[in-house]
Amino acid sequence: MASASLQFFAFILALFGVFGDITATLLPNWKVNADVGSNIITAITQMQGLWMDCTWYSTGMFSCNLKYSVLSLPVYIQAARTTMVLSCILSAFGICITAVGMKCTKLGGDTDSKNHACFAGGVCFILAGIFGLVPTSWYTREIIANFLDQTIPESSKHEPGGAVYTGFISAGFLLIAGVIFCTSCFNKQPGAGIYPPPQHHFPSTEQGSNAGYDLKDYV
Hints:
Layout: H1 2-26, E1 31-35, E2 44-48, E3 52-57, E4 62-66, H2 75-101, H3 111-148, E5 159-160, H4 162-184, H5 205-210
Antiparallel strand pairs: 1-2, 1-5, 2-3, 3-4
């Protein structure tokens, strides 16, 4: 019962991780640059994401431009696109597989089949968490390196946006869920295989019947 409850908790974490992973992939605010002019009316916020660049004006106007050319993008953005999409796909597969292998569901057949399905889903979550953690870390490193570079003007420097933090948290949820699923599938009963079953030795009837006689009486 405790293992089933733990798996259900991990499944909830995985759901949050999947939704956060998809949200982080689609959000345009991976890095943000706030540029404020002399008048508050001229304040604008420039955001750059994996698929589009957006500009928000303080007057309420909002415009976005899609990044159509893939080869013109920096290497870390191309890698972030690929790994984030793989993370979303693997996490979605993990949700489907663990839904069959969980102990609180009636799908998946016998216990061994459910355990193997649950373990496979946990591996998918771990891989999805790694694929989600790599691009967010790389993207953050590039932002910090450009921010600390003295040769880059202040107007071209950016800070990490909300999508990066969402990606970090989602990757953490997926990793935790994957570890829980992998470790909770093959729990054995405590003491099984450690203490051998007790063996009861009963005295033989012949030994009991001959115990009161001496063999020399028959010679």
